[in-house]
Request: fold
Amino acid sequence: MNRAFQALKQVAIALLLSCLTLIFGCAIVSEEPTAQAIISSTTNPDTSLGMAKFTETKDGLKIQAALIGAPQGEHGFHIHAKGSCADGGTSAGGHYNPAGVKHGYLIEDGFAKAHAGDLGNIVVDADGAGEMTATIPGLTLADDYSIVNKAVILHADPDDLTSQPTGNAGGRIGCGIIQSSDF
Reply:
């Protein structure tokens, strides 16, 4: 009986160690740096319109935006130079443009032909929901093209992607400050 108990004890310890290795092994997987912005109405800052999440990946900065309760239609969606949503979002300044280039569509035109904040448009359906996902090489949460402590702006109108200096995207209806999620 003592031998059977010892064998059972060794199997239990091995099983426990295997489980702990699996659990902690999964927990140790390195997480990419992230940031997020809660997008609120510029006319009623207590009203949330959605959020944007920014994740550094090996392919670039992954941007995932999800809107709820936003006005139906196509809306310009940009990163602006300053991390403030005061004064109806106007305190966010102009589009984030560290290279001093003309307005364009960053996802297709790259940093040489578009502002670093020119993310294009989000389409919002009749239920007020809209999503956007893009990965942009070179945009970061640190270093030269960091977007941390900048603002993300949802505009009233679509960005035509060509008009200077802002794409005729209209007024600012939503704003959120991009804050690092890493401590």
